[in-house]
Design goal:
Helix content is 28%, strand content 27%. The chain has 496 residues and is α+β, with helices and mostly antiparallel strands. The chain starts with 10 loop residues before the first helix and ends with a helix.
C-alpha cells in the first residue's frame, strides 16, 4: 500500500485491513514519491492503529518562506535564469495557507514579492520572472530585512534560503543567525560558483540550524532549493541522497549488507510509534523501515520507494532482492502455535471444534468465550472443555445448515485462534447433468437434445406465416418515379 493511498481507503476497507493484520496477516506501507499526506487519518482510524509509524503531520498554521536571492551583475545569464526557475518551483509547491516572500539584492535590497500568502502562484511567479542582474553583492542588510519580515509571521515553520554567487562582508549576519535559531527560524545558504566565501556561508547556515550547499555549476540548483525548503518547512517528502543507517540488526538484514547499500534519493517523513521497532533510519532522525507485532499479524512501513525514482541505485544493488525477500517473509502469516480444527459430525449434526496447544503455548488460566458464526445470521456460543493436557473440545448443533462457519473468541487468544469450516451446498457437491430432465424440456418446447452444430439453425421444415404490407414501399416508389419523370422533361424542354 502506497502512503498516498492511505486517505483513499474507505472506512469499511480500513476496518477490514486492520482486522486482517490483527488476525495474522501482514501489511506493508511504502512511502513513494507521489506523496499525498493523509490529513484525514486520525489516531482512532483502524488503519492508523495497525501501522507502526504515522506520517509527520503538517502544521495547521502553515509555513513561511523567505527567498533572499543575489541579483548582482555576476548572476547574469544561466545563473539568474535557473535561480528564477528554482524560486518559481518553490512557490508552486506551497499551499495557499503558506506565506512566501522573495527579496532580491545587490548592494541594496528590494522586495520582489513582499510577504504574502501563496494563494496566487501565477502572479507571484510573474514577479519573480522580473528579477534582473545589476550591481554588486552585500548580504547582511538583505538577510536582516528578510529575518525581520519572517519574524512577524505566525507560521509554525519559518525558513530563510540565501542564494549568492559572490563575496560580501559579514556585517552582523552571524549574530543575526544565532538570534534566528533562538527564535526557531532556520537559515540555509546556497553558494554558486567558485567566488563565494564557503567558510562564511557554512557558519551562517550552521548558526541558524540550516544547511549549506555549494555548486560549481547551477545545473542542479532547482532540486537543491526545493529539497531544502521541503526539509525545513515540515513537508513530508524529502529529496536528497541519504545512506540508510542500521539502528537494529534484525533478521530481515541477514545476507543483505546494508552497510554497502547505495544512497536513497528521497523518502517520506514518518514518525515511529512508541512500541515500534525501527530497523533502518535516515538522516539521523527519521525511520526508514519500522515494524511491529499487531495482534497475531505484523505491519511495517518503508519510508522510501522500491522503484527507479528514489530507489534508482537500490534497484541495481545486489542486496535489493534479498532485502525485499526478507521483508515479505517477515510479514507473511506464520503458522499458528495452536492446531485449531472444525469438523462436521453428520450423525448428530454437530459442529465439532478441536484445539491442540503447541509446545510453546502455555495452558490458559481460563477458557475464553467462544462463538460460532454462520450463514443466515447463525450465532451461538460454544462451550469448550479440557479433555487432556493441552487439548480442548467443544460442540454446537448446526443441523443441516450449509455454508461458511467460523469459531472465534471474543478477545484474541493465542491458545484459541479463529477456525473455519465450509459445508458446501448440495448443488455444488453433485456433479454431472440430469439428461432425462433436459430431454423433457427439449420435447415439451419442440426443440432438440444435444443437436449437432449444423442442425442448430435447421428449421426442420417448420414455417411461420408472416404478413408484410407492401403499399408504403410501392407508394414511395411511385412518387420517386414521378419526380424523376418531371426532372427529365424539364431538361429536355430546356435543350430545345
Amino acid at each position: 500500500l502506497n502512503n498516498w493511498e492511505l486517505d483513499r481507503v474507505r472506512p469499511a476497507d480500513q476496518a477490514a485491513l486492520e482486522a486482517f493484520v490483527r488476525r495474522g496477516g501482514g501489511l506493508l506501507v511504502i512511502g513513494g514519491e507521489k506523496n499525498l499526506l493523509a490529513e484525514a487519518m486520525k489516531p482512532s482510524d483502524p488503519l492508523d492503529q495497525a501501522l507502526p509509524a504515522r506520517l509527520v503531520p503538517r502544521s495547521a498554521d502553515g509555513r513561511a518562506v523567505v527567498l533572499v536571492l543575489d541579483r548582482s551583475t555576476s548572476m547574469l545569464g544561466r545563473k539568474i535564469e535557473l535561480t528564477r526557475q528554482a524560486a518559481a518551483n518553490v512557490v508552486s509547491n506551497l499551499r495557499p495557507t503558506d506565506q512566501v516572500g522573495v527579496l532580491a539584492f545587490d548592494t541594496i535590497f528590494r522586495w520582489q514579492v513582499p510577504m504574502r500568502f501563496a494563494d496566487d502562484p501565477v502572479a507571484i511567479n510573474a514577479q519573480i520572472s522580473r528579477i534582473n542582474p545589476n550591481g554588486g553583492t552585500r548580504i547582511a542588510p538583505a538577510l536582516g530585512e528578510g529575518y525581520r519580515a519572517i519574524l512577524e509571521t505566525n507560521a509554525f515553520y519559518k525558513h530563510i534560503l540565501l542564494l549568492t554567487d559572490g563575496l560580501s562582508d559579514e556585517g552582523n549576519s552571524l549574530a543575526l543567525a544565532r538570534e534566528a535559531q533562538n527564535m526557531s527560524i532556520t537559515i540555509s545558504t546556497v553558494g554558486l560558483g567558485a567566488d563565494v566565501n564557503r567558510a562564511y556561508l557554512s557558519r551562517l547556515a550552521a548558526f541558524a540550524g540550516g544547511k549549506s550547499y555549494f555548486l560549481n555549476e547551477p545545473a542542479g540548483l532547482e532540486q537543491i532549493v526545493l529539497g531544502d525548503i521541503k526539509e525545513y518547512t515540515g513537508m513530508t517528502a524529502v529529496e536528497k541522497p541519504l545512506v540508510p543507517e542500521v539502528l537494529h540488526n534484525a533478521e530481515i538484514l541477514d545476507e543483505v549488507a546494508v552497510d554497502k547499500a547505495p544512497p536513497l534519493k528521497g523518502y517520506v517523513r514518518f514518525e515511529a510509534k512508541p512500541n515500534a521497532e525501527v530497523v533502518l533510519r535516515l538522516d539521523g532522525r527519521d525511520p526508514l523501515y519500522s515494524r511491529w507485532q499487531y495482534g497475531l499479524g505484523r505491519a511495517a512501513v518503508f519510508a522510501s520507494d522500491a522503484k527507479a525514482r528514489w530507489a534508482a541505485d537500490w534497484v541495481a544493488w545486489k542486496g535489493f532482492d534479498k532485502f525485499w525477500i526478507n521483508v515479505f517473509r517477515d510479514l507473511l502469516p506464520h503458522a499458528s502455535p495452536t492446531d485449531a480444527r472444525l469438523e462436521y459430525d453428520s450423525a448428530t449434526g454437530d459442529l465439532v471444534a478441536r484445539y491442540r496447544l503447541g509446545a510453546n503455548v502455555a495452558e490458559p488460566p481460563s477458557i475464553p468465550e467462544l462463538y460460532v458464526i454462520g450463514p443466515d445470521h447463525f450465532q451461538r456460543p460454544l462451550t469448550a472443555k479440557k479433555t487432556a493436557l493441552g487439548t480442548y473440545d467443544g460442540r454446537v448443533e448446526i443441523g443441516a445448515r450449509e455454508g461458511l462457519f467460523r469459531v472465534r473468541p471474543v478477545e484474541d487468544s493465542e491458545a484459541f485462534p479463529e477456525a473455519a469450516l465450509y459445508r458446501p451446498e448440495a448443488e455444488l457437491s453433485e456433479y454431472g447433468s440430469d439428461e432425462a430432465l433436459l430431454k423433457q424440456v427439449a420435447e415439451f418446447t419442440g426443440g432438440r437434445f444435444q443437436p449437432s452444430p449444423s442442425d442448430v439453425f435447421d428449421s426442420g421444415g417448420r414455417t411461420v406465416p408472416v404478413v408484410l404490407e407492401l403499399w408504403p414501399w410501392l407508394l414511395a416508389l411511385a412518387i420517386a418515379l414521378n419526380l424523376t419523370e418531371l426532372i427529365l422533361r424539364k431538361k429536355i424542354w430546356q435543350m430545345k
